[in-house]
Amino acid sequence: MIYIKITTIKTGRNATNCYVVVSSGEALVIDPGSKKEVDKIKSTIETEEAVLKYVLNTHSHYDHIGGNKTLLAGSAAELLAHPSAADNLTDPRKNLSVFMGADYSSPEPDCSLEAGAVLKLGNEVFETYHIPGHSPDSLALYSSSENLIFAGDLIFSGGIGRTDLPGGDQQQLKKSVDLLLRELPPETRVYPGHGEPTTLKKFKEEVYPVLRR
Q: What's the per-residue H, E or C state across the chain?
């Protein structure tokens, strides 16, 4: 098993989980939700003696992208997102921040990740899943060596992502959940966009029966 270090930092008013993932001196930051925590994110990377290589947004809602611009300023790191996220990242109306009294405008992605794309971080390799439902541009990153997935706002410990926001689709969310349950091992650890980690097995036992009604 290839070792990776994961640090969780709660960001913003919605307590979005920002994950700092380090492997062999390289760092990936997933969903820096607020610029107020950027110093903490940078400090974590420095403590791990790593270099920021990627910033990834699991989707383009304001509470997952708020720290993009500040974190990337002066950095050579690449911003990664699904192709359909590009317009939302730069438009405060489309990323919904304007409706929350904020004005979040992120840089455009340096690289778009489609389903099946492979992302290398140090000695670790992640596979990309496109998991629409909560939003059309939702992505997940899966590590087979560590048997874990960063699933954004698709599924949570004890629940699922909301589908009443623009672009949300309950039926599509069910299909995305089915995809992960079908293709990944039950013991897969799930690192969600909010709340505590869970496993696919626990999710299937506790939440899935209600979802399928």
A: CCCCEEEEEEECCCCEEEEEEEECCEEEEECCCCHHHHHHHHHHHHHCCCEEEEEECCCCCHHHHCCHHHHHCCCCCEEEECHHHHHHHHCCCCCCHHHHCCCCCCCCCCEECCCCCEEEECCEEEEEEECCCCCCCCEEEEECCCCEEEEECCEECCEECCCCCCCCCHHHHHHHHHHHHHHCCCCCEEEECECCCEEHHHHHHHCHHHHCC
